[in-house]
Each structure stands twice: as C-alpha cells, then as structure tokens.
Amino acid sequence: MHQEHLEKLISSGYKLISLETDSPEQSLNDFRPLVREGKAIYAWEKERGLSRMEAGHITLPRTKTPEMVLKYIEQSNLFGIYLLIGFSKELAQPMLRPTIEQIATDKKHTKIIIFIDHNFNYPQKLLDKLLIVQEKEVRERTSFAGIS
Which residue, among 120, 68, 65, has the nearest Cα to 89 in the 3D structure? Predict the structure, then answer.
C-alpha cells in the first residue's frame, strides 16, 4: 500500500480501521516509512506482544493477549498507531467489544487501531465506528458482481 494511502487512512478521523489483505506481513512493512517520519507506530502479534516498530525486538510487558493489548491501548495517554496483526477472531469476541468501543469513542486521546488480517467477521455494533479497507485482491475475491 502506498504511503499516501496510509496517510489518508490515518487522517480519516476513524480510530478503528480494518485492513483486509492477503499479505499481512507486507502491510506491516508498508508502515515502516511512517516510523521514519516520527510517528509512534506499534505492532502486535499474538503470543509475541506489542512493540514499537523501530524497536521490534523489545516487547512491552503485559501485552501478549488480545485482552492485555486492548487494555494497554485504552490506558495509554499518548498518541499512537497500533497495528494488530491476526486479530480477526478476536474482533468478534463479545468480551472485547466494550474496550474496543471505549477506545473508539475516547475524545481525549488520539489512538488509532488498525486491525490487519485476511478477513474479518465484523460485529454489527462496531460497524459504524470502523473504516473497512480491502486490498484490491481481497475486494475482487469478495465481490458479488459476478453473481447473476
């Protein structure tokens, strides 16, 4: 994904963004130039935890599980862009929704969560707070235009 497109996503006003892609690792790498511009970007992977992209070898404590990382993001007072890789199943878990909704409606702190995975089962309650972006290949595969 081009840097200009990523900048538009970040400045869209949405705090929750879903990026459906066939290559989550490549999408993660697409954000690296933004780190060089001084943006605070964090990446999370299940069982590994959350780390700043420029110091990926250092994981933040108590961020390994979906519950822990969402609590960490919710309690942070700092601006940050959080890339949560492989979060499709977790996004549908009812017990995580209140924390996700709290982050999405927090007017005091600017935090942007970008969920990156192959596809998602979106909870109805989050749809109005979520910007859904599909890469071209995913969009073509999920299009209903060919059905007659």
Answer: 120
- CA–CA distance, 88 with 70 (Å, rounded to integer): 14
pLDDT tier at 1, thresholds 50, 70, 90: confident
Closest residue by Cα to residue 69 from 41, 98, 95, 43: 43
Q: What is the DSSP string of 86-101?
A: T-HHHHT-GGGHHHHH
Supply 91's token pair.
């996004």
Using CA atoms, how far apart are residues 60 and 63, in angstroms rounded to an integer? 6
Structural contact between residues 11 and 114, judged by C-beta atoms closer than 8 angstroms: no
| Every domain of the chain and the residues it spans | 3-135
Domain 3-135: give its CATH code: 3.40.50.300
Q: pTM here? A: 0.89
Q: Is the dihedral of CA 119, 122, 126, 127 positive or negative?
A: positive
Give me the phi and psi of 58, to 5 degrees please. -110, 110
Tens digits of residue pLDDT in 61-108? 999 999 999 999 999 998 899 999 999 888 888 999 999 999 999 988
